[in-house]
Protein: Fatty acyl-CoA reductase
Amino acid sequence: MEFETILGYLENKTILITGATGFVGKVLVEKILRVQPDVKKLYLLIRASGANSATQRMHNEITGKELFKVLRKECGANFDSFISEKVVALSGDVTFEDLGVKASKLKEEMCNEIQIILNSAAITKLNER
Ligand SMILES: NC(=O)c1ccc[n+]([C@@H]2O[C@H](COP(=O)([O-])OP(=O)(O)OC[C@H]3O[C@@H](n4cnc5c(N)ncnc54)[C@H](OP(=O)(O)O)[C@@H]3O)[C@@H](O)[C@H]2O)c1
Structure:
């Protein structure tokens, strides 16, 4: 019953996810797309030098991983179009103002569209300053 409620809640929602290249973040991205393919959009905030390199990191470190094999199988030939329709990789950093997102049009879109923020960006080294 509770799971059904969560699925219903995620339907048609736009979500910002940080830390998506990390251990927890990539599992979260895969799970949302697999159990609720009717989610509207996922923005993934990824540390990168620009939008293209954020997209490259997304393909290499998230959607291209073995973890996505079930979803890849379920989508078949539509996997790539499903990912490009649902997932937007953004270049940014949670320690910067406005999360390091510079383009004003993109910032405006994000402010208007995002309904949920899932923050999994973290430094997990115990000896970090
Ligand atoms: N792993 C577990 O078993 C576990 C269990 C319970 C809770 N947690 C919690 O879940 C969170 C994530 O843990 P994890 O194991 O997934 O860590 P992780 O594998 O080290 O991933 C950390 C993520 O945060 C990103 N990140 C770090 N600094 C950032 C910044 N300044 N701006 C944007 N992104 C940044 C990293 O991006 P880069 O790829 O660019 O470095 C990476 O995607 C932590 O709060 C942790 O305590 C983890």
